[in-house]
Design brief:
Strand order of the largest sheet: 1-2-3-6
Helix content: 25-40%
Shape: elongated
Order of helices and strands: EHEHEEHHEHE
Largest sheet: 4 strands, parallel
Distance between the termini: 43 Å
Length: about 120
């Protein structure tokens, strides 16, 4: 008889009522979508507070984020494309807008919020 094959699984989504309990129970990775750093941190704290009902033992849950991003050379280009809206305002709405001078800062904010990997669309 062959031993069972373990395949890592992930659950994607942001829902605190359905998604997070499914993550705790079944997933090795939680993949949030289109969140800013503050909201990611809030949901991550909620995930930490859920009782452990893991069917495969108490391994840590990897926390990742899939999001879109607009990359520009500078702030002026961002404002031209987004009709004068400030990039900080766009970030607060969950759209990462990165100019050359602040990519590292924005990734650092996501890391501080608990994001272990970022996937950009």
């Amino acid at each position: 008889m062959r031993p069972p094959v373990y395949r890592p699984s992930f659950v994607g989504g942001n829902g605190p009522c359905r998604t997070l309990p499914l993550v705790v129970r079944f997933a090795d990775e939680r993949n949030a979508v289109f969140l800013n750093a503050a909201r990611f941190a809030e949901l991550s704290a909620e995930l930490d507070g859920l009782p452990t009902q893991r069917s495969r033992g108490p391994s840590p849950i990897r926390r990742t984020l899939m999001t879109r991003a607009f990359y520009s050379r500078d702030a002026a280009e961002v404002e031209a494309v987004f009709r004068g809206r400030d990039r900080r305002e766009l970030r607060d709405e969950g759209l990462p807008v990165w100019a050359t001078d602040d990519v590292a800062e924005q990734l650092g904010r996501l890391e501080e919020a608990g994001v272990e990997r970022v996937m950009l669309q």
